[in-house]
C-alpha cells in the first residue's frame, strides 16, 4: 500500500463548521485559513460571486446536517478552502475532514465520493468532531459539550467511540442568541445599522440619538444587510453579554456593573440586566426565549445545556457515568461567554448531589474554538496514521461504502 | 485496527505484563510511546519490582513532570469484612499540562495497549494528580466487585 504522512506529503485538514471553516496542513498548530461558512451569489446567475458585496445574496451552508440541496454549497466551501485559500492541488494530498457525530451513513459516503471523484484526493479520512476534541484534551473517555454557532450538542465518547444513544442536540447556540439579541434591540427601540451603511458618524453623549451620515446603497439585498447586522450583534455578544454564574436573580444582577456598547452609527448606551437575559436562554430556554420568528421552533422542548449533559450521561451505562461527569469538555465559541463554565458547574452540582463533577475548558481560545481541527491536524500528521487512510485504490475497489469500515 | 492513531504495542509490553500478572515479578510497569522521530510504537519504559503506591504516584505526577504514560499497578487492598484482595489497575496518565500534541497521541493510542492487557480489572483515566490519588483508586476498586 502507498504510504502517506510523515515528511513526504502533508495532509490537508478541513473542518467545516456552521459558522467558520478551518483549513490547513496537518502537523501545524493553527489552521492556515479560517473563513465564514457562508458565500454570496448573484441572483440572476446563481453562481458564487468573486467578492461578497452588497448586491450578493448571502447563504449560510448548513454543515451540521447537510441536506441534498446544500451539497453544491458545501463543495463551494471546499473549493474556496483548497483552491483560493490553501492554493493546493488536492490530487497531490491526502484529505482529512471532520464531521458531526450524528452524520448518517449516506452523508459520509457522499463526502467520500466527492473527495475521490471531484477532488481526486490521494487518500481520505473522516473523523468525528467530539472524538477529536476529547483526544486533544488527553481523554479517550469524556462527554463533549459543543456550543457553537447553529447547534449545541452533547456527545458522550467512550474509549474513543461516540455513544450514539447519548447524543443530544438542539438549534439553540450562538446564532440563535444573536437573533434573540436582535429582538431585544427591537424592544428597546435600538436600530442596528451595520458598518457598510455608515459614511460619517459623530461622537454623541450616551443615550443620545446618533448623528450620522448614511451611504446610499439602494441595491443591497436583505440577506447581505442581515449578515452585516449579525456581525455587529456578534461583537456585542462577545464584548457585553455574560452568563450569570448561579441561579438567575434579577436583584443580584441589577447590582452588577453595567457595560457600554457603541453601535456603528455612534449611538451608545449601557446594558445592565439585559446583557444577562439572552445568554440565560442557554440554561433556561422556555422562560427566556422571546418568541422567535422561526417556523416550527418548539420553545418548550428546548433544554438547558446542563440538562443536555445530564441526559447525555444518563443515557450511558451506569459504570461509565462517574468517569464521564468527571470529564466534561466544553468546546465551541459560545462557551467562551464569561460565566458559562461556572454556571454549568453550578447547575450540575445542584442536580447531582455528591457526584464529582469536573469541567475541562481549554483556556487557550484556539484550542477551544478549533479543538477538532487541531485534533485532526495532529492525528493526520502521525507517522502511523498512514495505515488508516482510505487509499484511492481501496475506494476504487470497494466504493464509498468503505468509509463505514475504515472510519469508525 | 490497533488504535485510532495507528500506533501499536510492542511484544515486550505483553511479556512484561505476563510476568507481573502470573509471576508477580513486578509491582508496576510504565509504558510510553517511543521517542523516535516517527513515534510508532508503545514500548516498555520501566518495570519496578518493589514500590509502594505513593512511590508509583510520585513517579507519575512528580518525576515525569508533564510526560504522559500508560501504567499497570498491582494493587493490594483490604475489602472490609472479606480480607486481602488484589486487582490489576491500568492507568492512562495524560496530565492536563502536557502539550496538546502528546495528549492527542496518547489518548488516541490507548486502545493499542489496553486491549492487549487481558486480566486488568480496573481502568483509571488520569489527567490531574487528584484522579490518581490512592483514595480515588481505592474507591474505584471497592466499587467494583
From TrEMBL, chain A:
It comes from the Eukaryota. It holds the Pfam family Actin. This is Actin family. PROSITE patterns: ACTINS_2. Belongs to the actin family.
TrEMBL record, chain B:
PANTHER family: COFILIN-RELATED. It is found in: Nucleus matrix. Residues 4-142 form the ADF-H domain. SUPFAM superfamilies: Actin depolymerizing proteins (SSF55753). One of its GO terms (molecular function) is actin binding. GO terms for biological process: actin filament depolymerization. The keyword rRNA-binding does not apply. GO terms for cellular component: actin cytoskeleton; nuclear matrix. This is Cofilin.
